[in-house]
Specification:
By secondary structure, the protein is an alpha+beta fold. It is built from 16 helices and 20 strands. It has 3 domains: 3-113, Rossmann fold (3-Layer(aba) Sandwich), CATH 3.40.50; 142-211, ATP-grasp fold, A domain (Dna Ligase, domain 1, 2-Layer Sandwich); 217-470, D-amino Acid Aminotransferase, Chain A, domain 1 (2-Layer Sandwich), CATH 3.30.470.20.
Length: 485
């Protein structure tokens, strides 16, 4: 990491972090490292939010639901005005990809630590971004280039590109609003279902019809651009271990690309080319679907920092959050050229969620105990503390466990030890599921695709007695407290 990255800026700013949880903590640390004032938010149902510990100031955002707080643009604008805020970092989720919010900030002379509104609008719409990608000469999955409005139109396109097909929401992400269809009957059955899901989740019921790539790998490229015309890539991540189109485990670099440096260079250069086509000026991720022959197709672009950004930081040694803040203020990133960015070793991230490890459904509750005992080379970005109440109001992810080794085998070994050393009591977590996957033969050999969980079914290998162990540990803790131990 260069001196330019870690040195304090000459003009400290007041930065509001319009988010919560582990990403708010992460942003606050980056702000303070650069000499800025980190301003954290607390709401009516999270008065003991752990991310506030890392902030310099705290402000109250009245309300308890997402609609009343983190998604309420007028209320956030009032907080900005009342607290003389210079800039806003949105983290991920909530308003991070909301172009209207970006416009409002610009009108009020407040810096949005994210790409400009035009880029968010273009890349946030899957139909528009797909059209742009085609114009830039970037390979896209065969299918509709605009929203499909009727079932007959969807059937016509499906017949032309061939089954199986994917019905996919134009807006949003996170795996919502997507259905695979093997034939005409399934398109008819799922079309209106996807429309309703999309409208409910994103306020937009439009959808696309695309060719479904069989046994694909989900490969994404981290990019970062400044306001001086520079766009850099930080190599790729693999995010193929998913459930319901939502990521569970991520790796960098991709075990599927492996030592094929020609493919790696091609996909990374393609991501940079796409970012340049919209004059991108912040951190972002270009996502691709890769077929078994390593041909790849543009999927979408996330115009924000990703949940899985830590594994890229681990293999490159560059703080993406620090760079993102520097970019927003037009500062030099301390990166002279693409060749300056090197990768070393292998990193893995396991998303730690408050959910049943077998059904993979959210499991709210209260953390009654929290202990860690990690091996060297472990990073745990989290928002966990004893007495934390995980409610249905927010995403069930409560932490990200990251390990790095000089190669993939060692990174896996460290992750197994780290999972064994992570103890969260009082609620169900997906830790038992991660332990199964990390020891499963196909994963160990890097032989998996996005249908891994559906095909291999590691959830069926989770020991059914984990509930009893949790109860036993909780009772043991209560008894220890009673005895004064």
């Amino acid at each position: 990491m260069t001196n330019e990255q870690v040195g304090k800026t000459t003009s400290p700013k007041r930065i509001l972090i319009a988010n919560r949880g582990e990403i708010a903590s992460r942003v606050a640390k980056a702000c303070r490292e650069l000499g800025h004032t980190a301003i954290g938010i607390w709401t009516d149902n999270e008065i003991h939010a752990r991310h506030l510990e890392f902030c310099d100031e705290w402000v109250h955002l009245e309300g308890s639901s997402n609609a009343e707080t983190y998604l309420n643009i007028p209320n956030i604008l009032k907080v900005i005005k009342d607290n003389k805020v210079d800039a806003v970092h949105p983290g991920y989720g909530f308003l991070s990809e909301n172009a209207d919010f970006a416009d409002e900030l610009e009108k009020n002379g407040v810096v949005f630590i994210a790409p400009h509104a035009k880029a968010i609008r273009i890349m946030g719409d899957k139909a528009t971004s797909k059209t742009l990608a085609k114009e830039a000469g970037i390979p896209v999955v065969p299918g509709s280039s605009a929203a499909v409005e009727t079932i007959p139109e969807a059937l016509k396109i499906s017949k032309e590109i061939g089954y199986p097909v994917l019905l996919k929401a134009v807006a949003g992400g996170g795996g919502r609003g997507m259905r695979a269809c093997a034939d005409e009957a399934e398109v008819k059955a799922n079309f209106e279902v996807v429309q309703r899901e999309s409208a409910a989740a994103f306020g937009n019921g439009d959808l696309l019809v695309e060719k479904l790539i069989v046994n694909p790998r989900h490969i994404e490229v981290q990019i970062l651009a400044d306001k001086r015309g520079n766009v850099f890539h930080f190599f790729e991540r693999e995010c193929s271990i998913q459930r319901r189109h939502q990521k569970v485990i991520e790796e960098a670099p991709s075990p599927f690309i492996g030592e094929d440096e020609a493919v790696r260079q091609d996909i990374c250069d393609t991501a940079v080319r796409l970012a340049k086509s919209v004059d991108y000026d912040s951190a972002g991720t270009v996502e691709f679907i890769m077929a078994q022959d390593k041909s790849f197709y543009f999927l979408e672009m996330n115009t924000r920092i990703q949940v899985e950004h830590p594994i890229t930081e681990e293999i490159t040694g560059i703080d993406l959050l620090v760079c993102m803040i520097q970019s927003a203020f037009g500062e030099d990133l301390g990166i002279p050229n693409q060749e300056f960015i090197k990768r070393s070793g292998h990193a893995i991230e396991c998303r730690i969620c408050a959910e049943d490890p077998i059904t993979m459904l959210p499991s709210p509750g209260i953390v009654t105990g929290f202990e860690t005992n990690f091996p060297q080379g472990t990073r745990f970005d989290n928002c966990i503390f004893k007495d934390l109440e995980v409610t249905p109001d927010f995403d069930p992810m409560i932490g990200k466990l990251i390990t790095k080794g000089i190669n993939r085998k060692i990174a896996i070994r460290k992750m197994i030890c780290a999972l064994d050393g992570l103890h969260i009591e009082g609620l169900k977590t997906n830790i038992p599921l991660h332990k199964v996957i990390l020891r499963e033969e196909n994963f160990i050999n890097g032989v998996y695709s996005t249908d891994y969980i559906g095909k291999i079914k590691p959830q069926d290998m989770v020991k059914k007695d984990f509930d009893f162990m949790r109860i036993f540990n909780t009772l043991a803790g209560i008894e220890a407290n009673r005895m004064g131990l």
